[in-house]
Specification:
6-stranded mixed beta sheet, single chain, 26 strands, 3 domains, Rossmann fold, 830 residues
């Protein structure tokens, strides 16, 4: 590396099964420069930067950051050396708030000590022009807003090298300008910027030097001022380029419209009209948030709306995506990962998913017909894939987008609704997609294109509708469609909303945030606990006696500890089915050290044996999940069976009575409250503080939110997940200790029900079974409610079955509320 170089890659090679991604690539980036890295999708740009950031290991070659060698693939070490990455597919943690994302990414020691954390967060968000609330959960933000959080995180690290991978794809023009201002600011301070983009005008504007990759090899490094856009494009695709856009077709006069929409309205749209003629490509433009996205999604049936809607002359109901699709309208989503592709399935399966009925006979897919269709689409769209059965996740972004096109076109739609159809696609692939869109229209179909790229709309569309405040501010036709006219119509519009939802949204933002937060379930459960208690007390005067309260809360204590242990694992996206048998095994182990002929020393030794056993079980579960890569259900079910067998081996039948002194000490109370329950409350409060205020707590939730993103941000995923299983088992052992005082004898079957009960308590408490969210206070309330139901059914004279029906019903309600909350958040971010 030269004296001014802050990033140096030398002889870097990387292969994947059947693909050479990089072949002996060398790159040097100097301090204070913007170095653009260009190439088609699949050229190796993102792979090269992932290796530089420590997120991926190279097969050969070296990486130096700030003159220091990155000896092993470690994102945390790369960040320490001074590299930060804004990934094309954001590495934000959806289940954490905006504030938590920033605090997790930038440790306390790397933030200013002169201002508090929230002042610092506000400053970082203001720097990128973000106006959303720091307390908002990131999963509720739009794609563009999540991109701003990603950029704010990277800038906050004050890196030596900042890698921006397609940073403007989801940004508005105003946000893009703010990004360019920030680039100028940090490069003036000596930070180097690696800028990856398919937008050549942006590259020419910001870059000092340009390096082109093609087929995993460096094809040249150029001064940005010394090379034209056409020369850059020729170098990228390896051939001369005559034009980017295909010739526009002629509209078919006299033909009936394919789609008619009249007075389409909802909370954003203010009575939009549209007619689509065969052969027409219509663009939707405007500053983000002015209704164009809501309109295209309404036409697809994905957003609620009212109005008249006809497809091929037939009245069709809005808000019913399946019927709209059956009528001939196919939607190509703008976010291919969250809405478009099935990332765990193959290329073949993704292409045919919309036409399975046409390929099937008597419910069975015909392999020859399927293979013919898939091969035809792969050839027609020039999709680069090792085979049709390769996982879609292994393809580059541009080829994934082509697969999305192939799926939509396999349906032979009358109307294709394309939301940001070329987002994240290289220049060469864009020309192919433009050709496909025009050919779709030429065959007699109609296409609606929503795009934030004004040049794209100018070159592709026959008409452009410019939106402002939920209305069409201007319609441009033919030669009127120019970059100047589109932009001018968007920013100079004086259209006023007839009705605005902003006041409503402002007043109720706190309510939405509360409902989607982690503490709403706790307060709801607390209200249910009080209501059930009051009702049961009105039926039986004995329900709220000191003895009854003490007994119920002591029973809660054991379940609460086990449930809190279960929550720790669930936060990482795992599950531990072995907690039930481990609870019973703890009771069995302690029964060998708690007899009348044994003293305190022996019992303390027994506690040590139980704790060591629990730690070993947790460690074994962690290794099975993270080391051997078994699914959490299979791994812990295996442990479940093994632990139950060990417990039965030690105590084939119940035996080994606990002496009364031990039972009395464990069941000690203060007034109506058992000391064990008070300890549970204190532990729950402490654990909640750790979960919200410490890096370890945020890391648990980060891994459950997105393991890949957490790894990119430096999380030590394997270590943290293993530790979570160990802590779960230790909490379970404490629950077993308290349970031993309740049963007073070594019974190997006593804790089996705790596996399902602990999961029930956690789910009732608002935790997501997918990981990333939950609270210890909610879990405690869930355990209290389950025990209260068990106790109340006896006082109310109900059968034992109600002890199962009521918790089951509550779990369904809780899960339904959580699903609705996620669906509402997804609708808001769309």
């Amino acid at each position: 590396m030269t004296d001014r170089a802050v990033l140096g890659l030398k002889g870097v090679s990387k292969t994947f099964p059947g693909v050479v991604a990089l072949e002996s690539v060398s790159l040097e980036v100097s301090e204070g420069e913007v170095h653009a890295l260009l190439g088609e999708n699949g050229a190796g740009k993102s792979t090269l930067m992932a290796i530089a950031a420590g997120a991926m290991a190279a097969n050969s070659g070296t990486v130096e950051i700030g003159g220091i060698s990155l000896d092993a693939a470690s994102p945390s070490r790369a960040q320490e050396l001074g590299i930060a990455v804004v990934y094309q597919h954001t590495s934000v943690l959806h289940e954490l708030t905006v504030a938590e994302n920033l605090l997790y990414c930038v440790p306390k020691e790397r933030r200013s000590a002169t201002i508090n954390a929230y002042q610092w967060i506000s400053a970082q968000l203001a720097l990128v022009g973000a106006v959303f609330d720091r307390r908002t959960r990131v999963g509720e933000l739009s794609v563009a807003e999540r991109q701003l959080v990603e950029i704010a995180k990277a800038l906050a690290l004050q890196p030596k090298v900042l890698v921006l991978d397609e940073p403007t794809e989801a940004l508005t023009a105003k946000e893009t300008e703010q990004l360019f201002v920030n680039i100028e600011r940090i490069t003036a301070l000596g930070t180097a910027v690696v800028y990856i983009s398919h937008r050549l005008p942006e590259v020419k504007r910001v870059a000092d030097r340009i390096t082109v990759l093609r087929d995993g090899k460096v094809r040249g490094t150029f001064l940005a001022d010394g090379i034209s856009e056409s020369e850059i494009l020729s170098s990228i695709i390896g051939r001369p380029v005559d034009h980017a856009f295909p010739e526009k077709g002629k509209l078919r006069s006299g033909k009936a419209p394919l789609l008619v929409a009249r007075k389409i309205s909802n909370g954003v749209l203010q009575g939009i009209d549209l007619e689509l003629a065969p052969g027409e490509v219509v663009g939707l433009a405007g500053i983000e948030g002015n209704g164009q996205r809501e309109f295209i999604r309404s036409l697809a049936g994905l957003a609620p709306a009212v109005g008249e809607f006809r497809i091929n002359g037939k009245q069709t109901a809005l808000g019913e995506p399946t019927r709209i699709q059956d009528a001939g309208v196919v939607y190509l989503p703008g976010d291919r990962h969250s809405e478009g592709l099935f990332m765990s399935l193959s290329v073949r399966e993704n292409i045919v998913v919309l036409v399975l009925d046409a390929l099937s006979r008597l419910g069975f897919v015909s392999p020859p017909r399927e293979s013919s269709l898939v091969a035809g689409q792969i050839a027609a769209l020039a999709i680069k894939t090792p085979s049709p059965d390769a996982r879609i996740a292994s393809l580059s972004g541009g080829n994934q987008q082509k697969v999305l096109f192939a799926r939509s076109l396999s349906r032979e739609p009358a109307v294709l609704l394309a939301d940001e159809p070329t987002r994240g696609v290289d220049a060469g692939a864009r020309m192919e997609l433009y050709r496909i869109l025009r050919e779709t229209a030429a065959r007699g179909g109609a296409v609606v294109v929503l795009s934030s790229d004004v040049i794209e709309l100018q070159g592709l569309c026959d008409r452009v509708l410019v939106f402002s405040r939920g209305q069409i501010a201007k319609m441009l036709i033919g030669d009127e469609i120019t970059e100047e006219n589109i932009t001018g119509a968007a920013i100079n519009s004086d259209v006023q909303r007839e009705r605005t939802g902003s006041h409503y949204d402002t007043r109720r933002a706190w309510l939405r945030r509360f409902i989607s937060g982690d503490y709403a379930p706790f307060l709801i459960l607390l209200a249910l606990i009080i209501l059930l208690g009051l009702y049961t007390a009105s039926v039986s005067e004995f329900f709220l006696t000191t003895r009854s309260i003490n007994g119920a809360l002591f029973l809660v204590s054991a379940l609460a500890f086990v449930s809190m242990g279960q929550l720790i694992v669930l936060l990482t996206g795992g599950i531990d089915l072995s907690v039930g048998p481990l609870t019973g095994l703890t009771v069995v182990i302690l029964s060998f050290f708690a007899g009348d002929d044994q003293g305190a020393v022996e019992f303390i030794f027994g506690l040590g044996v139980a704790a060591a056993t629990a730690m070993a079980v947790g460690f074994a579960n962690g290794i099975l999940v993270r080391g051997i890569r078994l699914t959490a259900v299979i791994a812990t079910l295996t442990t479940y069976i093994a632990l139950q067998g060990v417990a039965l081996l030690l105590r084939p039948t119940p035996g080994g009575y606990f002496r009364s002194e031990i039972v009395d000490r464990l069941a000690a109370k203060v007034g109506p409250f058992p000391i064990a329950f008070l300890i549970v409350v204190v532990v729950a409060l402490g654990a909640e503080w750790v979960l919200r205020r410490t890096r370890f707590g945020m890391e648990l939730r980060a891994i459950g939110s997105s393991e890949i993103a957490a790894h990119r941000l430096g999380a030590r995923v394997n270590r943290t997940v293993i530790l979570a299983y160990v802590l779960c088992s230790l909490f379970t052992a404490v629950g077993g200790l308290l349970l031993s005082a309740q049963v007073g004898i070594g019974d190997p079957a006593v804790g089996v029900n705790y596996s399902l009960q602990s999961i029930s308590a956690v789910v009732l408490g608002g935790a997501s079974i997918f990981g990333g969210r939950g609270s210890f206070l909610g879990t405690l309330a869930g355990a209290v409610l389950i025990q209260e139901i068990t106790t109340a059914t006896g006082f109310l004279g109900l059968g034992t079955a109600w002890q199962y029906w009521l918790p089951g019903l509550l779990i369904l309600v809780a899960a339904g509320m959580y699903s609705r909350t996620r669906a509402s958040a997804a609708a808001r971010q769309a």
